[in-house]
Amino acid sequence: MAALAVGLWSVAGPPRDVKAQESDLLAQAEALADEGVAGQARQLLARWEDEHGASAPLDERARAWYLAARLAEEGETAELLYLRVIVEGSSTPYADDALLRLGQYKFAQGEHGKAIEYLGRLRRDYPTSEHGPTALLWIARSARLAGDDARACAAAEQGLNELVPATDPDLEIALLEQRRGCHDVTGAYTVQVAAFRDDAAAQNLARELLTLGFDAWVLNATADDPIYRVRVGRRLIEGEAKALVERLTRMGYSPFIVQGTRTTGG
């Protein structure tokens, strides 16, 4: 009977597979990092690297690089590790987190233009990221210190528009602080992708764009203007609108930037 049990164990493999062990080690290291026990976290991470680093799937490697960046004792080392997540792990769940951290690091270094670049890339490349409003806060702060008050105001306004009310009071307060003293934002942009006389055609294209990750919507026709316009984004900063145009153009669409006051739609 014992021999049979051993034979079955050999066929089925150990009760916990290698992937689970990999994940457990990283989870333990992350927990220690969260508790501020950096030395032990680094030891576990080094053990993970020795045992699993070469064979781990990309998601797990990016997770490890991201954690290593968090634990790095030198800013330059952290920056290189975050860049590795962004470049080699661009398709992983950690890329937008890395871009946010890089933007914040560059802000702390006083490199406000570089901070805006990284945070803008987060907004452009990961439009559904949960960090969108936070990125806009740091764009606003960076732009303010760079002397670009118009951009700072637009970013703060957009962040407040995107933030779900009451979900993050501290972030809302910070965005309101950045918006203080701003006049009404008149330089709000959107991107038009196409126009139709038929509502169904417009809605079909909007759904197509939504499935591709774009914030697509339809500006409905009126009695004076019987055209249905498919647009992407609302109250965008000019730089974001330009980036959207470039991205949509590469995908074969013919978009252009629109600046205007009527932004309601389906």
Automatic annotation (TrEMBL):
GO MF terms, alphabetically ordered: peptidoglycan binding
Pfam families per the UniProt record, alphabetical: SPOR, TPR_6
Domain SPOR residues, every copy: 183-260
Protein's name in the database: Tetratricopeptide repeat protein
Organism the protein comes from: Candidatus Kutchimonas denitrificans
